[in-house]
Amino acid sequence: MHKTTFLPLTVEAAMRAGATHVLHRAVDAERSATECWTALLAGCGSAGRGGLEPKLRQLSEATSEQVGTRWWSTDGACHRGRIARAQAHVEDAIAEGDGQEFARAFVGYDHAMASAVVCAATRVETPTP
User: Fold this and answer.
1) Each residue of 55-112: pLDDT tens digit?
2) DSSP state at residue 1
């Protein structure tokens, strides 16, 4: 039996970037996503669903801290927007109790989050005149 994973790209990107705080938050979000997924599949009303949204916000905050406020607000703004939209899709799927949409939305969220971590880690710093 295979283990269900929701943030494989984000976890890998955080490990490669040495972003330990992001990695810890991603692992926490992964656990909550698994609980939420189980609750959705079981048709549970709200048990197991409530803990994920705060974990996703914490992961976004950790990413913001990792990449730096300046990058997050300038060059990273497109990534920040993608993450926010993807997170909204995840939250909508949870609210609707739609397990299939949850899985689809999480693919987008993972890709958006990992892209931000990778792009920020590989950015070239240019001196400010």
Assistant:
1) 999 999 999 998 888 888 898 999 999 999 999 999 999 988 888 899 999 999 999 9
2) -
Q: How many CB atoms lie within 10 A of CB 54?
A: 12
* One-letter identity of residue 120: A
User: Is 14 within 8 Å of 22 (Cβ atoms)?
Assistant: yes
Rounded to two decimals, the pTM is: 0.87
Distances 123 to 4, 17, 33 between C-alpha atoms, Å = 32, 12, 30
User: 86 with 108: CB under 8 angstroms?
Assistant: yes
What are the residue boundaries of the structural domains of the chain, listed by start? 8-121
What is the spatial distance between Cα 124 and Cα 110, in angstroms, rounded to a whole number?
24
> Tokens representing 115?
């892209």
Q: What phi and psi values does residue 50 have, to the nearest 5 degrees?
A: -70, -25
Q: Check: CB of residue 64 under 8 Å from CB of residue 118.
A: no
Burial class (CB in 10 A: 0-12, 13-18, 19+), 32: buried
